[in-house]
Amino acid sequence: MSRIITASPEAVYDVASDIGNLPKWAAGFAQSEVVQDGRDLFVESPMGGVRIQFVERNRFGVLDHDVVLPSGTVVTNPMRVVSHPDGAEVIFTVRQIELSDTEFARDVRMVEADLDRLAALVSNGAPAVPGGKGE
Fold it and tell me: What is the C-alpha separation between 9 and 109, in angstroms, rounded?
Protein backbone atom coordinates (compact mmCIF):
# COMPACT_ATOMS: atom_id res chain seq x y z
CA MET A 1 0.00 0.00 0.00
CA SER A 2 1.13 3.57 -0.43
CA ARG A 3 0.33 7.13 0.59
CA ILE A 4 1.21 10.36 -1.22
CA ILE A 5 2.42 13.16 1.06
CA THR A 6 2.78 16.71 -0.24
CA ALA A 7 6.23 17.25 1.22
CA SER A 8 9.71 16.48 0.00
CA PRO A 9 10.89 12.88 0.25
CA GLU A 10 13.68 14.11 2.54
CA ALA A 11 11.19 15.74 4.94
CA VAL A 12 9.03 12.61 5.03
CA TYR A 13 12.06 10.37 5.58
CA ASP A 14 13.37 12.62 8.36
CA VAL A 15 10.08 12.40 10.27
CA ALA A 16 9.51 8.68 9.63
CA SER A 17 13.08 7.68 10.50
CA ASP A 18 13.12 9.61 13.80
CA ILE A 19 12.50 6.89 16.40
CA GLY A 20 11.02 9.47 18.76
CA ASN A 21 8.23 10.03 16.24
CA LEU A 22 7.29 6.34 15.96
CA PRO A 23 4.52 6.45 18.61
CA LYS A 24 3.13 9.62 17.02
CA TRP A 25 2.40 8.10 13.63
CA ALA A 26 2.64 4.32 14.05
CA ALA A 27 0.09 4.28 16.84
CA GLY A 28 -1.45 1.10 15.48
CA PHE A 29 1.88 -0.57 16.08
CA ALA A 30 3.71 1.27 18.83
CA GLN A 31 1.23 1.70 21.65
CA SER A 32 3.89 2.69 24.14
CA GLU A 33 7.04 4.69 24.41
CA VAL A 34 9.87 3.23 22.41
CA VAL A 35 12.70 1.73 24.45
CA GLN A 36 15.95 1.75 22.50
CA ASP A 37 18.88 -0.59 23.12
CA GLY A 38 21.47 -0.01 20.41
CA ARG A 39 19.71 -0.64 17.10
CA ASP A 40 16.95 -2.64 18.79
CA LEU A 41 13.66 -0.98 19.65
CA PHE A 42 11.17 -2.47 22.06
CA VAL A 43 7.49 -1.49 22.01
CA GLU A 44 4.11 -2.76 23.12
CA SER A 45 1.88 -3.58 20.17
CA PRO A 46 -1.59 -5.10 19.74
CA MET A 47 0.24 -8.47 19.56
CA GLY A 48 2.18 -7.91 22.79
CA GLY A 49 5.80 -6.85 23.27
CA VAL A 50 7.82 -6.80 20.05
CA ARG A 51 11.38 -5.99 19.04
CA ILE A 52 12.00 -3.86 15.95
CA GLN A 53 15.20 -3.18 14.08
CA PHE A 54 15.25 -0.63 11.25
CA VAL A 55 17.92 -0.53 8.58
CA GLU A 56 20.52 2.13 9.20
CA ARG A 57 19.67 5.66 8.10
CA ASN A 58 20.40 6.02 4.40
CA ARG A 59 20.06 8.40 1.47
CA PHE A 60 17.77 6.09 -0.51
CA GLY A 61 14.60 6.51 1.57
CA VAL A 62 14.67 2.89 2.75
CA LEU A 63 12.94 2.27 6.09
CA ASP A 64 12.82 -1.52 6.00
CA HIS A 65 12.49 -3.07 9.43
CA ASP A 66 12.36 -6.47 11.03
CA VAL A 67 9.75 -7.11 13.69
CA VAL A 68 10.23 -10.01 16.09
CA LEU A 69 6.76 -11.13 17.16
CA PRO A 70 6.03 -12.51 20.64
CA SER A 71 6.12 -15.99 19.05
CA GLY A 72 9.73 -15.38 17.93
CA THR A 73 8.79 -15.15 14.25
CA VAL A 74 10.67 -12.42 12.37
CA VAL A 75 8.62 -10.39 9.89
CA THR A 76 10.56 -8.21 7.45
CA ASN A 77 8.56 -5.12 6.49
CA PRO A 78 9.74 -3.34 3.33
CA MET A 79 9.10 0.41 3.56
CA ARG A 80 10.25 3.14 1.20
CA VAL A 81 9.96 6.89 0.79
CA VAL A 82 10.31 7.81 -2.87
CA SER A 83 9.90 10.92 -4.97
CA HIS A 84 6.45 11.56 -6.44
CA PRO A 85 5.23 14.43 -8.68
CA ASP A 86 3.15 15.71 -5.75
CA GLY A 87 5.94 15.32 -3.18
CA ALA A 88 6.72 11.92 -1.70
CA GLU A 89 5.18 8.47 -1.79
CA VAL A 90 5.49 6.17 1.21
CA ILE A 91 5.27 2.52 0.19
CA PHE A 92 4.69 -0.13 2.86
CA THR A 93 4.33 -3.86 2.23
CA VAL A 94 1.95 -5.57 4.64
CA ARG A 95 2.66 -9.27 5.15
CA GLN A 96 0.15 -11.90 6.22
CA ILE A 97 2.32 -13.93 8.57
CA GLU A 98 0.66 -15.67 11.52
CA LEU A 99 -2.57 -13.77 10.78
CA SER A 100 -6.04 -14.93 9.81
CA ASP A 101 -7.73 -13.13 6.91
CA THR A 102 -9.67 -11.05 9.42
CA GLU A 103 -6.51 -10.11 11.35
CA PHE A 104 -4.73 -9.29 8.09
CA ALA A 105 -7.58 -6.97 7.01
CA ARG A 106 -7.32 -5.28 10.44
CA ASP A 107 -3.55 -4.84 9.96
CA VAL A 108 -4.08 -3.28 6.53
CA ARG A 109 -6.54 -0.77 8.01
CA MET A 110 -4.10 -0.02 10.84
CA VAL A 111 -1.23 0.62 8.40
CA GLU A 112 -3.48 2.88 6.31
CA ALA A 113 -4.28 4.88 9.46
CA ASP A 114 -0.58 4.96 10.40
CA LEU A 115 0.33 6.39 6.98
CA ASP A 116 -2.43 9.00 7.34
CA ARG A 117 -0.99 10.01 10.72
CA LEU A 118 2.51 10.17 9.21
CA ALA A 119 1.19 12.45 6.46
CA ALA A 120 -0.45 14.72 9.05
CA LEU A 121 2.68 14.79 11.20
CA VAL A 122 4.87 15.68 8.22
CA SER A 123 2.49 18.30 6.84
CA ASN A 124 2.39 20.05 10.23
CA GLY A 125 6.11 20.73 10.01
CA ALA A 126 7.07 20.54 6.35
CA PRO A 127 6.70 23.17 3.63
CA ALA A 128 4.38 22.36 0.75
CA VAL A 129 5.92 20.97 -2.41
CA PRO A 130 6.00 23.58 -5.21
CA GLY A 131 3.47 22.58 -7.85
CA GLY A 132 2.00 19.86 -5.61
CA LYS A 133 -1.73 19.44 -5.03
CA GLY A 134 -1.29 20.70 -1.47
CA GLU A 135 -0.75 24.28 -2.66
Answer: 23
CB atoms < 10 A from the CB of 90, how many?
Answer: 25
Backbone torsions φ then ψ of 12, nearest 5 degrees: -65, -45
For the stretch 57-80, pLDDT in tens is 999 999 999 999 899 999 999 999
Closest CA to 63 of 21, 13, 115: 13
Within-domain flag for 15: yes
CATH number at residue 91: 3.30.530.20
State the CB neighbour count (10 A cutoff) for residue 134.
15
Q: Quote the CA–CA distance of 5 and 83 in Å, as a whole number.
A: 10
In the chain, how many domains are there?
1
Are 42 and 53 in contact by the 8 Å Cβ rule? The answer is: no
Q: Is the residue at 131 inside a domain?
A: no
Share of the chain above pLDDT 70, in %: 89
